[in-house]
Design brief:
Elements: H1 3-13, H2 20-51, H3 57-81, H4 84-105, H5 111-139, H6 142-174, H7 179-203, H8 205-208, H9 219-228, H10 231-261, H11 265-298, H12 300-303, H13 306-320, H14 324-338, H15 341-349, H16 355-387, H17 392-426, H18 442-450, H19 457-467, H20 476-479, H21 488-500, H22 507-512, H23 519-533, H24 537-544, H25 550-563, H26 566-580, H27 586-595, H28 602-605, H29 617-630, H30 636-639, H31 646-660, H32 664-672, H33 678-688, H34 694-703, H35 709-725, H36 733-759, H37 769-792, H38 796-805, H39 810-823, H40 826-836, H41 841-852, H42 859-867, H43 872-884, H44 891-895, H45 903-917
Helix pairs in contact: 2-5, 2-6, 2-7, 2-11, 3-5, 3-16, 4-5, 4-7, 6-11, 9-16, 10-14, 10-16, 10-17, 11-14, 13-14, 13-17, 17-18, 18-19, 19-21, 21-23, 23-25, 24-25, 25-26, 25-27, 27-29, 29-31, 31-33, 32-33, 32-34, 33-35, 34-35, 35-37, 36-37, 36-40, 36-41, 37-38, 37-43, 38-39, 42-43, 43-45
């Protein structure tokens, strides 16, 4: 992209330099995709109208409604088992082959062919656009999405414009039918973009991490119950459904008039191409020049009235003048306003709905409400056209009162919106990081600004995060008072938002913040001066490098690191090294450690490694916090040892959790590292659970096979924590079931060992510590099995069944067994029921003997097996038993473990061998 164009785009969309690679590839992808879709849609409409006539359109509306839901369900299931890029590639190849088939079949006659093509192109649009936005959500985190989705969406609009005019150009050359091949070419070009897109994603482990597929575990009945309980949600769902219903009626009227006005299929195709091209231009004009201003001046609740009012006027025109210009105005009003102003208004209307409920409601609307509205409109049109033989004029008169209901519904929503939004903000139910659009509605902004006066710091920060999605030119005056707030974080955040407004009159106030006591605030102020002043800003920062105040000095270093040239950055690096060179100058070292975490230049991050050997606790705390802020892989090995240092453990966990957002694979490697301290390894799973992703889950599931059973249990607990916090993640059922089978085998192996120790001539007493330990381990093994079950059966029933199984009530245990027998998969049901069956242990062993090939063991073999067990607890108890009651012939076995890497086993072996030797 030329530099000038890129600068224009950056000023409009705030896209950062590091975002441009993925953004431009995705922009090209959606551009080609929508261009192909518009061309295919023009061909579809033209062939159907020319060959079958508009009176058959209601049938395809009904067919699409019936088939789209089924296709979406199948696609969701495929998505749950396949990787996104492979699914997209495979689906695209399948769709391309379909296009060739349709092109070849069009030489034959048959009404079924035109019905099939019409429905197929509609499904094509649903699947390909859904795949694209799924891919986009994999590639961009919420912050990036907020910056980039605007320009990517522009690619879709431009694709529609270009696709429309290309249709007009090529239909005159190749004819309507052969446009399918040109559509194939445009769509096939998207396959060439998939590889570079995925390579870019792989470079960034955060984005390469697959996200889970959103699934509604609450179920449709539960979701409908949630909607019914909310008057506001009922209104929103009704509004969306009515919009889709009316849009279909308008589509029928438009295509009917076009079909009756134009006589050849090439003329119809060319008309649709030009119409869609100009429709795209109209949408751009409305979106860029009117939407923001209307939302700002009139507000959301007034903005949603524009579409129904325009359609009311258009329907009235069409009722009076059933001509192609009136139909084009009506359809153009729907197309240009529905996906620009009306869509922006609707997004703001659903803003107060909690994120989890919003996602489930969106799925419900897409799969059921929209489809039901499409089908219902088809049925109504079928009745009006076939049964009553009404004309387009007459249908327009019928449409007027239906649009009137829509207008009344919009007025009712106006009364509910502000109160619902204020309550949602008060309860902090809105995920500010998930907002992908700018808020310019005055009522919404006033609700957000109210939070800035809240006495609770967390509410103020929540409001400031919200303001990142607000048209900032509206709010600078409301933020100025926060520059004096006691909280450093609030002062920094407020100043960052003020600077982003690019208001030059704020410069004196920003310069005044250089007197702030916080080095982080000073840093932000210097960056603000550079952003607003530009000229002379770097010279000002360089002058502060010699400032005796270490806070001012590190602020200058940080700003030069962000804004300076390489030669100036080298000077800043040397100044930073000089600041930390004096071990006695604790204030300077503390400030140096604190501010480096706010620098994004990676060349400065390595400097932080020198401070991890610091003896001053405050310097260490700031260094650990800065390491976490950077999220750099290079700090992981340095941070891990601090997990054993109690005063620093919490900060180290938080820092590693921040690193895990971008490099979970590194922490996974640490779990597998047998040379790493056991206590450190056992703390890593809970860190990974703080920032769960599908990739994190897959890594933890893979790590469950650890020989260290306590570490394996910590991993399992982390997986349970993830499962309970987010039901949308996928836990590979085959891996979990395999692990359950291993655990049941281990359970019966423990029972077998205990039986041999109790039944041999040299049997141990039931009160022996080793026997008690084996009892404990069988209990823990049952707990592991139920924890594994909760990963694939996330409802509360499994948890309650476990509580009943371990209770002392025979009735409760029987009830739990009945429940398990009815819900468990056949593959694991028999094995688990053998474990939890309410019968004596010897009988359990007899039943399980054939399944697990359990054979009786001698006393000596059982002891030897325990001594060399991977479980250090059992191993230590078995070794200890040698020195007390077990035969002295095991002395050599104990001697073999005096050099064990496990501290507990090693110390126990040394104690026992010394005792047996009499030393």
């Amino acid at each position: 992209m030329p530099t000038t164009l890129k600068k224009i785009a950056q000023s409009l969309f705030e896209v950062r330099r590091e975002d441009w690679g993925k953004t431009l590839w995705m922009f090209s992808y959606i551009f080609l995709l929508i261009a192909a879709y518009v061309m295919l849609k023009s061909v579809r409409d033209s062939l159907f109208l020319y060959e079958l006539g508009p009176e058959k359109l209601p049938y395809v509306y009904i067919l699409i409604a019936l088939m789209a839901g089924s296709i979406a369900t199948v696609f969701s299931r495929l998505l749950a088992t396949a990787k996104i890029h492979r699914l997209i590639f495979g689906t695209s190849l399948f769709l391309i082959s379909n296009l060739f088939v349709f092109w070849w079949l069009l030489r034959f006659e048959g009404a079924w062919l035109f019905y099939s093509l019409y429905v197929w192109v509609s499904i094509f649009g649903i699947i390909t656009t859904s795949q694209f936005w799924l891919l986009a959500n994999h590639l961009f985190n919420p912050r990036e999405a907020k910056r980039t989705f605007g320009i990517i969406g522009t690619g879709a609009t431009l694709g529609g414009i270009v696709g429309g005019f290309l249709t007009k150009t090529f239909v005159e050359i190749a004819g309507t039918t052969n446009l399918l091949l040109i559509g194939v070419g445009l769509f096939a070009a998207t396959l060439g973009l998939l590889l570079p897109i995925w390579r870019l994603a792989a470079k960034d482990s955060t984005q390469a991490t697959p996200r889970s597929v959103e699934r509604d575990h609450q179920g449709t009945p539960g979701l409908i119950s949630s909607i019914v309980q909310s008057k506001y949600l009922i209104l929103i769902v009704a509004l969306v459904g009515l919009t889709a219903f009316i849009s279909n009626l308008i589509d029928f009227e438009f295509k009917s008039v076009v079909s009756n006005s134009l006589k050849s299929k090439d003329q119809i195709t060319a008309f649709f191409g030009v119409f869609f091209g100009w429709l795209g231009i109209a949408s751009v004009i409305v979106q860029f020049f009117f939407t923001g201003k209307i939302l700002k001046i009139l507000g959301t609740t007034s903005a949603i009235l524009f579409l129904p009012l325009a359609l009311f006027f258009g329907s009235f025109l069409l009722a009076l003048f059933p001509l192609i210009w009136a139909a084009s105005f009506l359809k153009g009003s729907d197309g240009s306003l529905r996906y620009s102003l009306h869509k922006s208004g609707t997004e703001l209307l659903i803003l107060p709905i909690p994120l989890a409920l919003k996602k489930r409601t969106k799925i419900f609307v897409d799969m059921f409400v929209d489809r039901f509205a499409d089908g219902l409109s088809g049925v109504l049109l079928l009745l009006l056209v076939s049964a009553f033989a009404l004309t387009v004029q007459q249908i327009s008169f019928i449409l007027l009162p239906i649009i009137g209901i829509w207008i009344c519904l919009s007025f009712i929503i106006r009364k509910q919106y502000v109160g619902t939004l204020r309550e949602a903000i008060r309860k902090k139910q809105i995920d500010t990081k998930a907002l992908h659009f700018k808020i310019s509605d005055q009522a919404a902004i006033e609700c957000i600004l109210d939070t800035l006066n809240h006495p609770d710091e967390s509410h103020v920060l929540y409001g400031l995060e919200f303001l990142e999605s607000v048209q900032l030119s509206i709010v600078p005056l409301n933020l100025r008072k926060l520059l004096k707030h006691p909280s450093e974080e609030i002062r920094v955040h407020a100043m960052r938002l003020l600077i982003a407004s690019k208001d030059q009159t704020l410069l004196p106030e920003i310069e005044g913040m250089l007197q702030d006591e916080s080095s982080v605030v000073k840093t932000e102020a210097l960056q603000g001066i550079h952003a607003l002043k530009k000229e002379g800003a770097i010279d000002l920062m360089k002058s502060y490098l010699k400032d005796p105040d270490p806070k001012m000095k590190v602020a200058a270093i940080a700003c030069i690191a962000q804004c300076g040239r390489e030669s100036e950055k080298e000077i800043a690096r040397n100044e930073w090294k000089q600041m930390v060179s004096n071990p006695e100058d604790h204030p300077a070292r503390q400030e140096a450690a604190k501010v480096i975490g706010h620098i994004t230049d990676c060349s400065f991050h390595k400097l932080l490694l020198d401070l991890f050997n610091e003896t001053d606790k405050k310097v260490l705390l700031f260094a650990i916090d800065s390491a976490g802020r950077t999220g750099c892989k290079i700090f992981v090995k340095s941070l891990l040892p601090f997990l054993k240092v109690r005063p620093l453990r919490k900060q180290a966990q938080e820092a590693l959790a921040s690193c895990a957002r971008t490099i979970p694979g590194t922490l996974h490697d640490a779990i597998q590292d047998q040379n790493l301290d056991r206590e450190i390894r056992q703390r890593i799973p809970q860190i990974l659970a703080l920032n769960p992703s599908q990739w994190t889950i897959d890594l933890l599931l893979h790590s469950l096979s650890q020989k260290d059973r306590h570490l394996s249990f910590m991993i399992l607990k982390a997986l349970n924590r993830i499962r309970m916090s987010n039901l949308s993640f996928r836990f590979d059922p085959d891996k979990v079931k395999s692990r359950i089978c291993q655990e049941t085998h281990h359970y019966f192996a423990l029972l077998n060992t205990k039986r041999s120790l109790l039944s041999s001539p040299t049997a141990l007493d039931k009160a022996d510590p080793l026997i008690q330990a084996l009892n404990d381990h069988t209990v823990w093994s049952v707990e592991r099995i139920f924890r594994l079950l909760r990963l694939i059966y996330p409802d509360e029933g499994i948890f309650h069944a476990y509580l009943q199984i371990v209770s002392n009530s025979a009735w409760n245990r029987a009830t739990a067994l009945e429940y398990l027998e009815n819900i468990l998969d056949k593959k694991i049901r028999t094995e688990i029921l053998h474990v939890v069956d309410d019968i004596p242990e010897n009988e359990k062993l007899q039943k399980a003997a054939s399944i697990y090939r359990i054979e009786g063991k001698s006393f000596d073999d059982s002891v030897k097996e325990l001594i060399f067990s991977e479980d250090s607890h059992l191993s230590a108890l078995a070794i200890y038993g040698i020195g007390k009651t077990l035969p002295e012939g095991f002395l050599s076995e104990a001697e073999n473990l005096v050099n064990s890497p496990d501290l507990l086993v090693r110390e126990t072996a040394v104690h026992v061998t010394n005792r047996l030797r009499g030393s």
